Amino acid sequence: MMASYYKSLSVLVLSLISIAQSINNNNGGVTIDLIHRDSPLSPSHDSSKTQFQRLRDAIDRSFSRKSFLLRKTSRSIDQTPQAPLTGTSGEFLIEYQIGTPPVRQLSIADTGSDLTWIQCQPCTSCYKQDFPIFDTTKTRTYKNVGCETDTCTRGGSTSCNDKKVCQYRVEYANNAFSQGDLATETLTLGRTASFRSFAFGCGFNNGETFASTASGIFGLGNGKISIVNQQPSAISGRFSYCLTGLNSNVTSTISFGSAAVVTGPGVVSTPIVTKDQDTFYFLTLQGLSAGGQRIDYKPSPGVDQQSGSEGNIIIDTGTTLTYLPSNLYEEFEAALKSAIRATPVTDPSGSMNLCYSSESKDFAPTITAHFKGADVVLSDQTFMKVSEGLYCLTLVSSPDLAIFGNLLQKDLLIGYDIPKKQVSFLPTDCTKSR
User: Fold this and answer.
1) Which residues contact 64 (CB under 8 A, 6 or more apart)?
2) Is residue 157 within 8 Å of 80, Cβ to Cβ?
3) In whole angstroms, what is the distance from residue 386 CA to residue 51 CA?
4) Torsion of CA 211, 216, 217, 223, to 10 degrees
5) From the CB of residue 265, how many other CB atoms can be counted at a distance below 10 Å?
6) Rounded to whole angstroms, how far apart are CA atoms 146 and 161?
């Protein structure tokens, strides 16, 4: 029974990553588990830590994540792709299978990365992994990608070896990296979704700062090599997810293809804004409301109102906190303070901007994010209990990069439709989303 469970999970993720040339018997629709790294259901779960310690760790990872997202979106960095993950972080894990016969994988699911890669044998240098590393000599469907192919071109930072095999290299924070061959394989997601000729990275040389619980990265970005865009006829450029709380005993879910369509009463949609960095999903945040006051976003002085506002925030599953442009945050914080009948206190860690001493968060007003064309009521995690009797706002100020983080995405069914260039939101109890 356990073997069959892992098989279906692996199959799920694999097909996700390699959405290649065919899907069997499911019309492209599949839903699988998305496991938060700190969930009791995660192999990364540390039961010796309190819920407050786990939240503080996620907050710390959030600041690191933000700094590397900034590096990747900046034009000033070199041409070597910088994937936006700290060495052992990544907030969500996804299980799937790859190869024939299928081999279980557990990878970091990342909307800020395009290429899916795993560790492979024979390995020149691999970090410790808790389950067997994929052996390319024991599968019937593994094929190297040639240098003179469109797939190699779509792979991003690629090169060619003396055997005319396309090679990739991706770099991360803390000097972490993966290097190897670009190849195709059969990816399986869930019990019914099988994808042939899925392009992925087979890493024979990988940095040692990744967690042993993960075999690599599962790319959900908007780039051409991402599983989302590899095979339009299979996934149709659509995926969605529904996130549960950090300490929930129910996993979040992620869906692809026809299962990812978000419809029904209450759905609102906002455009995806295309920018030079096609990996990321840029949205337009026009303002925030709380306590009966709406604060509109205003670009910095000297910046055109329309062009400066379009695509001003990234939606990202790998960032825990939400980062607001500094001028918007300052006005919004002032509005919150006037709406909350309590005196703010200082966060002892210095990480959070606005905190209150309280035994409950009944003091917190409802907060609505006004995206272009979509008003979204945010989750009950706008204020989080960071220690006994202390609640802090999970929106913070940022002078350079705005990010809509995963805490505020809780209990929203969020659908990405690449052909329509839009992200949709539907209020949903994600513990019952199946």
Assistant:
1) 86, 89, 173
2) yes
3) 8
4) 150
5) 6
6) 10
Q: Taking the chain, what is the end-to-end CA distance rounded to the nearest angstrom?
A: 21
How many helices and strands, by DSSP H and E, does the chain display?
Answer: 7, 29
Three-class secondary structure of residue 177 per DSSP? strand
Q: What is the mean pLDDT of each run of 10 residues along the chain (434 residues)?
A: 41 37 52 90 86 93 88 55 42 94 93 94 91 95 94 85 92 81 93 87 86 90 92 84 90 94 96 92 97 89 59 95 96 95 93 94 95 96 96 95 96 97 97 80
C-alpha 59 chain-centroid distance? 15
Contact (Cβ atoms closer than 8 angstroms) between residue 71 and residue 112: no
Q: Which residues contact 46 (CB under 8 A, 6 or more apart)?
A: 38, 54
Do the beta carbons of residue 115 and residue 168 sit within 8 Å?
Answer: yes
Percentage helix, strand, coil for the chain under 3-state DSSP, each rounded to 5: 20, 35, 45
Residue 166 to residues 133, 147, 180, 228, Cα–Cα distance (Å): 21, 5, 9, 21
What does DSSP say about strands 177-189 and 193-206: parallel, antiparallel, or unpaired?
Answer: antiparallel
Do residues 156 and 114 touch, judged by C-beta distance below 8 A?
A: yes
Distance CA 413, CA 266 (A): 11
Q: Which residues are catalytic?
A: 110, 316
Q: How many residues does the chain have?
A: 434
